[in-house]
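[Discussion] Sanity-checking designs against the backbone

I'm trying to build intuition for which residues belong where. Below is a structure token string of 221 positions. I'd appreciate it if someone posts a full sequence so I can compare it with mine line by line.
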């Protein structure tokens, strides 16, 4: 398949969106006989709320599947010869599918796990700064949500730092900004999906990973 034809890229983006849109959390909780995960806790379909409703095992499976649904379409596109700069757009559409799944009236999760999947699929180098930022923020504050927000903000920064080597790119930094735009949009999306967490962080009421018991409705990633 050639990617000089924009229609090929559109088809890959559509496939990435649809793959990302699969609401694994909702499906797994229903299959486990626990009802609709959206009717419990925070109402989120992500791994945190699934763990609350269906147990830690079900939450872990949801986390892995949410990572996989971001990883798989981008990895397959990469293997099929989609240029690495265009993979940035596929990465964004996969996370958009998770955040705005059409199967749930365009309501979805916060995109952190799926974003992790697309980062791994494009190039493992893109994980360095976001993951380091996440771990440091988590160690310092015990807030998964803050770590996720700051890690998301580091994604376009990491791309600008390592994108030239990943793309074997010899152009100017200004020209590198174009393939970096989807990563900036992805970062803004993840941050926006954490807007309730941001309000709680500002109010000092956000739950922590360890310490006081986490309250329902305080999904952090």
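Best answer:
Here's mine. Compare freely.
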């Amino acid at each position: 398949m050639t990617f000089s034809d924009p229609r090929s890229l559109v088809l890959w983006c559509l496939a990435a969106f649809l793959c990302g849109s699969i609401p694994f959390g909702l499906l797994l909780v229903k299959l486990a006989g626990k009802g609709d995960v959206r009717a419990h806790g925070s109402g989120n379909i992500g791994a945190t709320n699934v763990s609350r409703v269906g147990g830690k095992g079900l939450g872990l499976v949801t986390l892995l599947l949410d990572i996989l649904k971001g990883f798989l379409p981008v990895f397959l596109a990469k293997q099929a010869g989609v240029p690495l700069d265009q993979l940035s757009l596929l990465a964004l559409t996969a996370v958009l599918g998770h955040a705005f799944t059409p199967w749930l009236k365009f309501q979805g999760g916060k995109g952190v796990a799926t974003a992790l999947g697309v980062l791994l699929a494009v190039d493992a180098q893109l994980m360095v700064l976001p993951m380091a930022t996440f771990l440091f923020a988590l160690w310092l504050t015990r807030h998964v949500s803050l770590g996720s927000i700051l890690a998301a903000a580091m994604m376009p920064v990491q791309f600008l730092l390592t994108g030239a080597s990943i793309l074997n790119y010899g152009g100017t930094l200004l020209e590198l900004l174009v393939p970096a735009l989807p990563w900036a949009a992805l970062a803004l999306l993840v941050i926006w999906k954490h807007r309730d967490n941001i309000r709680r962080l500002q109010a000092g009421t956000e739950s922590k990973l360890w310490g006081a018991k986490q309250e329902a409705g305080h999904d952090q990633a």
